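ugh ok so i messed up the first submission bc i forgot one of the chains. this is the corrected input, ALL of the components this time, i swear. 204 residues overall. if the numbers dont match what u have on ur side tell me asap before i send this to the collaborators (the ones from the other lab, u know who)
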Amino acid sequence: MHSSFSVDRELDLGEQGCGQLVMEIMLAMRPLVAGQTLLVTAYDPAATVDITAWCRMTGNTLHPSLPDLSEHQFLIEKGSPQSC
Amino acid sequence: MLNNFCVNLTRSTDDPDRATVAMVIANAAVASGKQTMIFLSSEGVHLASKGTAEKINEEGFQPMSTLLQNFLAAGGALWVCSPCFKKRGYTESNLIEGATIVGGAKLVEFLSNDGTSISY
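and heres the new structure output, hopefully the right one now
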């Protein structure tokens, strides 16, 4: 349960990183509509910088750290319909 | 921001580590919304022949066949250097689904249209 935000889909990527990580995120985001959210769990050391860059490039929003989230969790909100 | 992104790959089973990393980067590009194309030349063209991708499975990465399938399914383009392919005894009958045999002009056109490239 997450008390301060809603989650429409969750994705646990474990240790996956680099292109494999963003490919899995892209595939998980595809069916979402604008405003829906994906909660990603990722333990790769580059996950933070890669997910941040991916969101910048694709027009999706990475929500800043929320109290309910660990350092390995990332809440991504789907942007415009053109976003990945 | 540049949108045409080329991954130039000259390796396959002769350097599976390098070939796998190239495919991972290509996946990152296409998953990030870039018009992404892998240009296979020299030894890299083996990857466009049926059965080769299945032979590459590097520790710490997804299998090459999975990476390639995801790349193509996400809309990535796989271009194969025509003389490199022919030189190694291949014909179009050996080509995997989703790959396209091209010549240098096609590559130059792609890169000249606000393109950028990384080589492996």
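quick check: The CA atoms of residues 33 and 78 of chain A lie 6 Å apart. that seems consistent at least. The first helix of chain A runs from residue 18 to 29.
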